[in-house]
User: Fold this.
Amino acid sequence: MKVFLLEDNVPLAKNIQEYLKLKGIKVDIDFDGERGLEKIQTTHYDALILDINLPHKDGITICKELRTAGNTLPILMLTSRNTSKDVIVGLDAGADDYLGKPFDMEELISRIHALTRRNSCNKEQLVTIKNVTVNVPQRTVERSGKPVPLSTLEFDLLKYLLQNRGIPVDRKTLFEEVRGDFDDHMFSRSVDVYIGYLRKKLGKTFIETKKGFGYLIK
Assistant:
């Protein structure tokens, strides 16, 4: 995996680069917004770690310009601005996730992996885990080669867990991400029921429960 880090705090950028390198992740770094944007536009990366406060061009502007140009590179905002208003501004600009400083390096790595898996899942037509194959665009599922009928809610839950593979997702997040134009209160109480349906259809261990954190697919 190769990621690009745009961070004007040089010591922090170097520390992140060294730590991710130990975990097998190659990291290119830059400290200038305009120069960094040029590199992103001319070099392939699997993800972008982007600070907001950058010289010559700030992170929000960079994010907007990339999305306007049709660039779908997964973007993780990394900044000390972690109020709800700033988070909304970053996400509205096109960021995929947001991590406030100070942060734990292991959490940073987990979020990077989640973003790249999510991007891969969105691009792939077929996702296969164990004996289960999910056709994302056609919204079909097979288990050991046999079709598995899923309701709309069941498939949406499955897809979201696949997009965040390896990361526990709590009930509230599942509810907020998957809910549609139906009774919110009813669905909020029924997430566990739908997870139960999926386990019956895909296997008891296909979706795991991480106590105190949520559901996940490994």
The first strand starts at residue 2 and ends at 6. The chain has a mean pLDDT of 85. Residues 109 and 124 are 22 Å apart (CA to CA). The chain is about 45% helix and 20% strand.
